[in-house]
Amino acid sequence: MSDKGTPVDWDGAVNAWHISGGIYRMGRREWLTEGGWRQAFDDGVRTVVDLRNAAEAQRRTSDPEVPDTAWAGIDVVQAPTEEAGDPRFTAVTGPYLNDPAHYAENARLFPRKLVGVFRAIATAAPKGDVVVHCAAGRDRSGMVAAMVQDLAGDSDEAIAEGYRRAARGINERYRTHGPPHSRERYLAEAELEPLLERRGLAVVEFVRGLRTRSFLLAHGLRQAELESVSALAGRKIPL
């Protein structure tokens, strides 16, 4: 297992990082090559939790051609963090979540969706390690990663840096491959650094205000499920 907060080098993986314990994050799973899936399996991954809405889970022509057998032994579970196109949410975020300042609104509007994510992780935990992913591996993954780090007892700085690393990771992808659409663009360091400083602090503000353990239990996650997630993340919590 890699050290907490380090990059993961599965072939084809974009913006892939170790969060904590047996939990990882990355961008679209469709970027993984057949060899990358095999490497993830060899590293102990047995479940991939897709945080995207179902309509987003499509192969692009630029993605590697990978047979279904490539992920034999790895379950892929759909657990979106939001209701697609909900006008209450898009009025705040625009077309998609792309700023930690809006994570709290995601949690307010869709608490049971987030419980669903953590229930999926809890269900997967006995089988092996878990990867959570969205599209860019930045914000939906970042929101869930911050909550995992909170359960794992990480410091404010570690949580902020987890977001900043991933935001830098996808920004570098935009430099080398171009952004996927006109709403994203590559940012030079002079613009990126102050933006990430603010957004890293916003992630910490979100997760400390949320109080992940209490939030999840209040909205339906069972104590045993919470313990499973926390154990997988590397820290058991008291009853």
Give structural notes.
- This protein has 239 residues and is α/β, with parallel strands linked by helices.
- It has a single domain (17-232), classed as Protein tyrosine phosphatase superfamily (Protein-Tyrosine Phosphatase, Chain A), CATH 3.90.190.
- The chain is 46% helix and 10% strand.
- It has nine helices and five strands; from the N terminus they run E-E-H-E-E-H-H-H-E-H-H-H-H-H.
- It has helices spanning 34-42, 87-93, 103-109, 111-124, 140-151, 156-177, 189-210, 212-218, 223-232; strands at 17-20, 23-26, 45-50, 75-78, 129-133.
- The protein has a five-stranded mixed sheet.
- A hairpin with a 2-residue loop joins strand 1 (17-20) and strand 2.
- The protein is globular and about 40 Å long.
Features:
single chain, 239 residues, alpha/beta, Protein-Tyrosine Phosphatase, Chain A, five-stranded mixed β-sheet, 9 helices, globular
How would the blueprint of this fold be written?
Layout: E1 17-20, E2 23-26, H1 34-42, E3 45-50, E4 75-78, H2 87-93, H3 103-109, H4 111-124, E5 129-133, H5 140-151, H6 156-177, H7 189-210, H8 212-218, H9 223-232
